[in-house]
Design goal:
The protein is mainly alpha-helical and about 150 residues long. It contains four helices and two strands; from the N terminus they run E-E-H-H-H-H. Strands 1-2 form a two-stranded antiparallel sheet.
Length: about 150
């Protein structure tokens, strides 16, 4: 296997059965790698969004109420984290714990998908095929362009 970039239309990607021979197969492979990379970038932003929502849910479960927009003296005192408000509110199981656990499980699965997909994209680049490399770079660029403005909506 060559360790320099080449402009070839034949390459084996990731698995033995993904053996590209000819320009048509190369175009299809570049499109697949492009879409995988766009999905990778979207997955990163989705994980960040879920992380922010999870932290908000944890704060609500910890303090036992949702943040209010009132700004009178009583509401400020009620919402301040004093020693008494940091203690658990009651001893019976909290229904929010189940939702926090499910959120953690979802984030773990998304992390697994992100890491696996990231390594697969890296291995595609390590095929040292210029066209595959170009598909990864363009897919990452488009995925970033599409997904990161969504972070402003959090």
């Amino acid at each position: 296997m060559s360790m320099t970039f080449e402009l070839s239309d034949s390459v084996t990607l990731l698995f033995d059965f993904w053996d590209v021979q000819g320009p048509g197969g190369m175009v299809l492979s570049v499109v697949v790698v492009f879409l995988l990379t766009v999905f990778y970038e979207l997955l990163k932003v989705w994980r960040v969004c879920l992380g922010v929502k999870s932290k908000l849910a944890q704060r609500q479960a910890l303090y036992g109420h949702t943040p209010s927009s009132r700004c009178d003296d009583n509401s400020i005192l009620e919402s301040s984290p004093s020693a008494s408000s940091l203690t658990p509110l009651d001893s019976h199981p909290d229904p929010n714990r189940y939702s926090l656990l499910m959120m953690h499980i979802i984030q773990t699965v998304l992390h697994l998908m992100q890491v696996s997909l990231g390594y697969m994209v890296m291995l595609c680049v390590m095929s040292y095929n210029f066209w595959i490399f170009l598909g990864v770079i363009l897919g990452s660029t488009l995925g970033y362009f599409i997904s990161f403005p969504l972070l402003d909506q959090i």
